[in-house]
Every structure is written in structure tokens, then in C-alpha cells.
Write a structure and sequence with these properties.
InterPro entries: GlpE_sulfurtransferase, Rhodanese-like_dom, Rhodanese-like_dom_sf. It holds the Pfam family Rhodanese. This is Rhodanese domain-containing protein. By secondary structure, this protein is α/β, with parallel strands linked by helices. It has a 5-stranded parallel sheet. Strands 6-7-8 form a 3-stranded antiparallel sheet. Strand 6 and strand 7 form a beta hairpin. Helix 1 crosses helix 5. The chain is globular, with a radius of gyration of 23 Å. It starts with a helix and ends with a strand.
Length: 168
């Protein structure tokens, strides 16, 4: 009888413990869903340019513009676009105004895939910069398209065989 009572007590305690875990998981799932909705809405609300359109703009050499990489330091060091200003997302609002002092100059923002770039694009537009565009798909789309990027080894491109150094 005592053994059955102990087992029953353990089952009741376990039931309460697991119900608490399940209840705790639900609110965080709602938070995660809200974050996804929010970032998706921001991505859809800011001006964007495809990597193909951006490459045409670079090749046309008709307009001065700034390029800003908002990824982390390791990501930037692994490969970045030519002449990109490095301003990681968590510090961009302080770094960019010290590096880009004309609020009307065209600015193209990129990150790994587009979300951090969209967040910084919105922040800069809200702050008073007038011509800020997010590069859709970010560095991932840029490298996958076979466009050049730079790191400590020089000019690189990604091919079907992976990354490779390119002569300049």
C-alpha cells in the first residue's frame, strides 16, 4: 500500500512538473511567432534591391553610394563586399553616423540573408537617412550568385566547387 501511495505521489508530482513545462513553452512560442511576424513585416516595408540589380548598379559606376555590412565581425572577416563599411547590427546606430555623414547619400545595407539588414534599414530611415535600401537575400544570395567578395586572401568568388581565390 505504501509503495502504491509513493508511486501515485511521484506520478502526481511528475504530472504537475510536466504541465508547467508545457505551459511555459506556449508563451515563448507565441513570442517567437510574434518576432517572426514583426521581422517579416519590416522586411516587406523597407526598400529592397536584388543582388542582380545591385551588381548592375555597381557595374554602371554612375552614382556614388555607400555599402554597409551589418553582420558580425567573424562573418565580415570571412568575406565582405568591396569597400563595405562594417557596422554590426547591435552597434549600427552609433557607427553609421560617424562613417556616413550625409543623410541623403544612397546606402545599401546587407547582412547574411536580409533580416538584420532590413532591421538596420528601417532604423536608419526612421533616424532621418533618406535613401537606404536593403540588399534582398544578403551576402548569402550575393556569394551564391557568383559575385566577388573580399577577405584577407583577396578577391574571392563562390563556385559550384566552393570558394575560390580570383585574380584581380
Amino acid at each position: 500500500m505504501k509503495k502504491q501511495l509513493s508511486i501515485m505521489s511521484l506520478l502526481i508530482v511528475a504530472l504537475f512538473a510536466f504541465s508547467g513545462v508545457a505551459a511555459a513553452a506556449e508563451p515563448i512560442d507565441a513570442v517567437k511567432a510574434n518576432i517572426k511576424l514583426s521581422t517579416t513585416a519590416i522586411k516587406q516595408s523597407v526598400p529592397t534591391i536584388t543582388v542582380q540589380e545591385f551588381m548592375k548598379k555597381i557595374e554602371s559606376d554612375q552614382e556614388f553610394f555607400e555599402v554597409v555590412d551589418v553582420r558580425g565581425k567573424d562573418e565580415y572577416d570571412a568575406g565582405h563586399l568591396a569597400n563595405a563599411v562594417w557596422a554590426p547590427r547591435g552597434k549600427a546606430e552609433w557607427v553609421i553616423p560617424t562613417k556616413i555623414t550625409d543623410p541623403d547619400v544612397p546606402i545599401y545595407i546587407y547582412c547574411k540573408s536580409g533580416t538584420r539588414g532590413a532591421l538596420v534599414t528601417k532604423m536608419l530611415l526612421d533616424a532621418g537617412y533618406t535613401n537606404v535600401t536593403n540588399v534582398d537575400g544578403g551576402f548569402k544570395a550575393w556569394a551564391s550568385a557568383g559575385y566577388p567578395f573580399y577577405n584577407l586572401h583577396g578577391r574571392m568568388v563562390m563556385s559550384k566547387d566552393g570558394f575560390g581565390k580570383q585574380p584581380q
